[in-house]
Amino acid sequence: MTTALAKQETAAAAPVAPQASSPYAARIDHVSKSFGRPGPGQQLVLDDVSIDVAPGEFVTLLGASGCGKSTLLNLVAGLDEPSAGAIDVPGGRPALMFQEHALFPWLTAGKNIELALKLRGVAKADRRPEAERLLELVRLKGAYGKRVHELSGGMRQRVALARALAQDSQLLLMDEPFAALDAITRDVLHEELTRIWSQTSVSVLFVTHNVREAVRLAQRVVLLSSRPGRIAREWQIGLPQPRRIEDAAVAELSVEITEQLRGEIRRHGQH
Amino acid sequence: MASTDTTRATGDTEPTGPGGGTEAADGTGTATVAAGTVSTATRKAGADGPAESLAGLEAGLDALDSAPARERVGLGRILLAKVVPPLVAIALVVTVWQLAAASDLKPDYVLPGPLDVADSVRTMWLEGTLLDYIWTSISRGALGFVVSVAIGTPLGLLVARVKVVRAAIGPILSGLQSLPSVAWVPAAIIWFGLTDATIYAVVLLGAVPSIANGLVSGVDQIPPLHLRAGRTLGARGFNSVRHVLLPAALPGYLAGLKQGWAFSWRSLMAAELIASSPDLGTGLGQLMENFRVNSDMSGVLATIILILIVGIGIDLLFFSPLERRVLRSRGLLVRS
């Protein structure tokens, strides 16, 4: 892998057993999820979903409201149990980024990252340099001592990304992490995420309802239908990175995917 | 289709490869716009390629989006805004009081003037006993408060986090807050006699519920997202309490502590007033009772004012700054 160098760097700080032998970073194997007691009131949210995320792969999950994409992410994160099927994440607990930054307001940006390092078991002396390295990775070199409320929305999400990376997980789950940002900042963070993903060996499973964002970022786009969530279609995106959201090729593919997505949504109006 | 590896390798460094031409053009385009509005760093970066240009763009965004540094408020303005109004209010009250006393609405032994009261305080000061009275009460209040914190904190955590405990004693705990702690004095005297134990029992029964309840409401107000974030970071058990739960609940807990102090102080005065005996050291409560027995109204009023000053003073010196600091560091307090 061309990313071996970056990987060595992160591995040095963590005594994690190498997981390189596994053919996938996450395997979602015929997973179904329903809420409520069995019976007529039971709601099927996910129906027989299978997705393999290859090591180092960037996959976006795309779908309208009610497709269960956040539920699926919670299942992969281990915050909830599937009703049927199995989920395997060989690299250990995945890192998770939310739409809200979810940084702890009682800690500085740097200490937020150090807490993640501490909970991962990094020795005290190594935490500060590692936190500063991660802040530099998201280009927030001077933000170590800043409180969360002193940072802009884009900066907060970058600190949150650095904190997620601090978990040194092989899998990064992102739940619409840029949805609340303005268009300019979102565009910049797309570039940052692409850059950081290309510099590390992390696999990304990225949930969004924004078709262009999905095409802009991913190597593979998985479209989920709604109620219950099923895999409707997949696209391999062969366009080279770095892409731009306004690229003609991105736009063209987005039109195609949007058509399909609208078709999925329309089905719910026909009863 | 380019393979994944080459795509990722060229991702950041060179604007060559397929689509590189348009990429470079786009990059410069962005840089020019950004340079015009943001900084010279961006203009320089424009020549170095998209990666540098992105860094510059981001630096510009960060600078634009961050809140501008607040100007320092001068000491004079703080004095004018925060200190002068209460002083004026106090002066007004004292003036009205003095006028009422001077106009002889009531005889002096019922309504002494401010000067008589000041004279009582001065006499106690000259006798050298004033600080002893105050210290006796403050040390009792402080000890009672510390013990209340030691009991109320684990109790609050239990009620907040264990469903059965909450169902069992949650309502009783909040109900106890509305029970005036004076109500405990007769019971405590029967249990412990006229001893220090009586006084501390009343203080604890007054302060523990409000400290525990403060912590419970602090925990209840934690955004669920923070707990979820803690779990994804791997915080479990003790780590979760130590690094997520307690710091997140701190604002509510502090409010509880502040109220707990007020309750300790109030309960202490009630206890001292009723359970007064020569065997116990003389605190402000007993002092007031002694003045009442001697029908010394200016002494009674002087003691009331002392009790008020101590209560307000500890809040102003200790709890309020602590609370403000915590809220401000979290961006929860907007400087007016």
From TrEMBL, chain A:
Q: Which PROSITE patterns match?
A: ABC_TRANSPORTER_1, ABC_TRANSPORTER_2
Q: Which SUPFAM superfamilies match?
A: P-loop containing nucleoside triphosphate hydrolases
What residue stretches are annotated with the ABC transporter domain?
26-251
Q: Which Gene3D superfamilies match?
A: P-loop containing nucleotide triphosphate hydrolases
Task: Read off the InterPro entries from this record.
Answer: AAA+_ATPase, ABC_transporter-like_ATP-bd, ABC_transporter-like_CS, ABC_transporter_ATP-bind, P-loop_NTPase
Q: Which stretch is the leader sequence?
A: none
Q: Which GO terms describe its molecular function?
A: ATP binding; ATP hydrolysis activity
Q: What Pfam families has UniProt attached to this entry?
A: ABC_tran
Please indicate which superkingdom the organism of origin belongs to: Bacteria
Keywords of the record, alphabetical order, are:
ATP-binding, Nucleotide-binding, Transport
PANTHER family from the entry? ALIPHATIC SULFONATES IMPORT ATP-BINDING PROTEIN SSUB, TAURINE IMPORT ATP-BINDING PROTEIN-RELATED
The name of this protein is NitT/TauT family transport system ATP-binding protein
From TrEMBL, chain B:
Q: Which UniProt keywords apply?
A: Cell membrane, Membrane, Transmembrane, Transmembrane helix, Transport
Q: Name one Pfam family in it.
A: BPD_transp_1
The organism's superkingdom is given as Bacteria
Regions crossing the membrane: 79-100, 133-160, 172-193, 199-219, 240-257, 297-319
Q: What is the protein's membrane topology class?
A: Multi-pass membrane protein
**Which Gene Ontology cellular component terms are annotated?**
plasma membrane
* Primary subcellular site in the record, as a coarse category: membrane
Q: Where is the ABC transmembrane type-1 domain?
A: 134-318
Region (Disordered) location: 1-29
One of the protein's GO biological processes: transmembrane transport
- What's the family? Belongs to the binding-protein-dependent transport system permease family.
UniProt protein name? NitT/TauT family transport system permease protein
